[in-house]
Request: fold
Amino acid sequence: MVTDEKTLVDALRGLGCNAAVWGHAELSHRDPGFDERNFGASALVRPADTAAVAALVKFCADNNVSLVPQGGRTGLTGAATSHVGQIICDLGAMNRIEEIDPFARVAIVQAGTTLATLQNAALADGLDPGIDLAARGSCTIGGMVSTNAGGIMAFRNGTMRHRILGLEAVLPDGRIFSDLTRVLKTSAGYDLKHLFVGAEGTLGIVTRVAMRLDPVAGASATALVGINDAAAAQRLVRHFLGQTGTSLRAAEIMWRGFAVAMNKMLGFAPGQLPLDAPCLLVLELGADTVDAATTALEEGLAALWEEAGIVDGLVATSLQQARAIWRLREETELIERIHKLPPSFDVSVPGGNLDAYVCAIEAGLKSIDPSYAPYVFGHLADGNLHISINCDGPLPHDRHLAIEDVLYVGLAESGGSFSAEHGVGLDKREAYERHVDPVKRELASAIKALLDPRDLLNPGKIFSPSV
Ligand code: MLT
Ligand code: ZN
Reply:
């Protein structure tokens, strides 16, 4: 039994497995990533291979110490937070792309590989992992599996669940679940790898992943289009999705309040980007050449200008301009410079209801506090909206619940979700209990109890401690 931090760190160093070990003091000098609460643990272990992860998990099981898996520490719901007495299993040293098979279009990657590393490596073969998100430089493949990340291209290619072919994970008792299937078709009984997708490290630690790769267009063009509402944006998306010879790579929406705030924080000159419309749509179109993509965007927008009620539009004429448009959409952490820890939400709204949903939540939030005017933006084509309230957090509990009611009530019934792509983690556990079907929750708890009866892997995440 390990009693204090020094004994714990010495015991971890004495394990003799292929891993670096830091104590709590060392952790306090390091960058915890997106969440200040990530580095609360007594120690961090950085295994270099699956055997070292298994040795660490066995040590934790033998000593009744709980383990928090961490990837790029870019999570937004506190799933990687840790506290004294716990050990972090940092997958950052398992960052090799073991293989890219350009013919089968499959990559075998270690869990700590960042998305950008895989994107760049696949590009050398004209391929792409088919999934992209703003945190690409830091988020890791294992973390993306664990939260079932979605991002910008999910509307065409699905979420992480649809991009993986197989995976390897270390179970809470130290056994290795090995299913690095690299073919699309396998119907050999229960497809258990999916249990680890979106499990946020509560059922096992994902160590290696087989991912699908897709051919990628050689060039792209970007536009920023001002429209009146999400329905108009959807009309444009339908047009570009239906075109042959080009592929729509992104369709991101921003309501005006968000775009104006971002524009100000980025320090862009007035008029640099056209923002004078109720909604802004970022379109990225892939084609064989930049000219072909640009022409297709220009012609498509011109053809639909009146029908879709386009207010204004800009097709980027330089990489710099395209980059500015993407910075407006992606550097969302700037909102946290306006408000301290603004309450933030991540919902999936069934396609046809976006405008009605946004109108309803704006009114509902105003009825709680007339000063509330949410920042709304997200992934238009799959209905995933991100919503931040324009106030400092955390809010008193009853106020937070009232906001959640405005945002979440009726969502599941209409076929949506209170958590689209950021997971449940620590911060959305109450919403999970209030808005997820009780039978589904019962089954999830039974699976957790079966695989991790002593609650050693990422305890207190997804499920409230009493469950
Ligand atoms: C995004 O789409 O930008 C991410 O999900 C992050 C965010 O919600 O801030
Ligand atoms: Zn997102």
Remarks:
- The first strand starts at residue 19 and ends at 23.
